[in-house]
Design brief:
single chain, 193 residues, alpha/beta, 6 helices, 7 strands, 26% helix, binds S-adenosylmethionine
Length: 193
Amino acid sequence: MATEDQKRWDEKHAGKRGDQPSSSFLVEILSSASWQIAPGRALDVATGRGRNACFLAERGFSVDAMDISEVALQEARKTAQARGLPINFIQAELEQAALPGAAYDLIINFNFLERSLIPKMKNALKLGGHVIFETYLVDQRVLGHPRNAAFLLGHNELLELFRDFRVLYYREGKFVEQGNAAYRAGLFARKVR
Ligand SMILES: C[S@@+](CC[C@H](N)C(=O)[O-])C[C@H]1O[C@@H](n2cnc3c(N)ncnc32)[C@H](O)[C@@H]1O
């Protein structure tokens, strides 16, 4: 049976159709000659309509993509099918979901913040695996959605959350994505122990 959270997210996703551009932060990191991340097994946390999962699958990753919203996942499945991408979409409430240990080469998390999930994400990464994480900063409140402090990162918070990883790239500030400016923090880091 659908939880209140699932219903709320299903309503938010209802009526939203079509392909969305992948995150420019993700594209920048995976296209950079500096790191050359080899394809492997990847997890997209809170995939939404799957824009980033599709990007990873196109780059040769074998992708699991989780989201609470069946409505979002239906759209994601259509997009992946149209593009011939064999993504494993999983409907799950991430706080309750068990993630396999040391299973993934890459975990991505975009526009979603559930701090309690971070230890599980770390455990699900292989040693030497990478995380790419980008979401809104506390400064975003002056620009608009989201405003709830629970879903906004403090300054340097993302760095602190991954201080046991080797941070390869980090940025904070106001960035334009698809023509919209937003305050975000972005991190790319490697599990080293
Ligand atoms: C703002 S959207 C971001 C989607 C995607 N990561 C992107 O950047 O396009 C946040 C997503 O988190 C999902 N979500 C919210 N709470 C969740 C939960 N507890 N478990 C799993 N997914 C959740 C929503 O359904 C929604 O698709």
